[in-house]
């Protein structure tokens, strides 16, 4: 389909870009002709564009067995703080019922007792786990970790 396009035909995107250039040149006070605008568009089209598959390189590298810990640039991000949360379950309630909650109220969740918890980092699911007690403090034992490739796919 794209091969049937007439090379002399102006697409709506190209026309919009030409109109933007014309408006910008009018604001600057320069006398711009259509030839000037066409020259600017041709110059813009002459610049090479990165193929879309290049943007998928991180996912491809992970699929090919790339180990991000081998990268020296990884040190730059190791000290960035992220929020990790464990989700027991959730439910939807009305604001009326929310305002009626008080000490001793019970909220029914969408999970069964004993079902694994979701472990999320900045809101993105990365693992499932179960609650454990360590030195009288709650903890979570990871039972299933989502692969890096799957995590990247979910971000798209």
From TrEMBL:
Q: Into which family does the record put it?
A: Belongs to the FliN/MopA/SpaO family.
- Keyword tags: Cell membrane, Chemotaxis, Flagellar rotation, Membrane
Q: Which GO terms describe its cellular component?
A: bacterial-type flagellum basal body; plasma membrane
User: What is the name listed in the Swiss-Prot or TrEMBL entry for this protein?
Assistant: Flagellar motor switch protein FliN-like C-terminal domain-containing protein
Q: Name one Pfam family in it.
A: FliMN_C
Q: Which GO terms describe its biological process?
A: bacterial-type flagellum-dependent cell motility; chemotaxis
Q: Where in the cell is it found?
A: Cell membrane
**Which PANTHER family does the record cross-reference, listed alphabetically?**
FLAGELLAR MOTOR SWITCH PROTEIN FLIN, PTHR43484
Q: Which residues form a coiled coil?
A: none
Give start-end positions of Acidic residues composition bias: 27-38
Bilayer topology reads: Peripheral membrane protein
* Matching SUPFAM superfamilies: Surface presentation of antigens (SPOA) (SSF101801)
> Where is the segment annotated Disordered?
1-50
Instruction: List each copy of the Flagellar motor switch protein FliN-like C-terminal domain by range.
Output: 77-146
Q: Which GO terms describe its molecular function?
A: cytoskeletal motor activity
Biased composition, class Low complexity, residue ranges:
13-26
Q: What is its main location?
A: membrane
Q: Which InterPro entries match?
A: FliN, FliN-like_C, FliN/MopA/SpaO, FliN_T3SS_HrcQb, SpoA-like_sf
